[in-house]
Amino acid sequence: MDAVQQRIDAMVKGHRVMLFMKGSAQFPMCGFSGRAVQILKACGVQDLQTFNVLDDAEVRQGIKDYANWPTIPQLYIKGEFVGGSDIMMVMYESGELQQLLNG
């Protein structure tokens, strides 16, 4: 595992809810990232940690390799990859995301 992958791994495993996104929770820089933040807020997440991939090109590419997932945002809960905003929306609408967050 190279240094970038180690940094990503530490972030993913170091926070209960970790969102790699474009922008910040306060100022999302794309619609998909904004939707991901809104879904998590609707679930009542208080301990959301975010990483702005626009600030770090190595992490922006590295996170795609880490999860073998080509798009951003990417949500991790308890160290496990959940998915992007479309998957988050489906899980939210079914109640599965709330169960994962509260379990």
UniProtKB/TrEMBL annotation:
[2Fe-2S] cluster binds at residue 30. It holds the Pfam family Glutaredoxin. Keywords: 2Fe-2S, Iron, Iron-sulfur, Metal-binding, Redox-active center. The keyword 4Fe-4S does not apply. One of its GO terms (molecular function) is metal ion binding. It comes from the Bacteria. Residues 17-82 form the Glutaredoxin domain. Belongs to the glutaredoxin family. Monothiol subfamily. NCBIfam families: Grx4 family monothiol glutaredoxin. This is Glutaredoxin. It comes from Inhella inkyongensis.
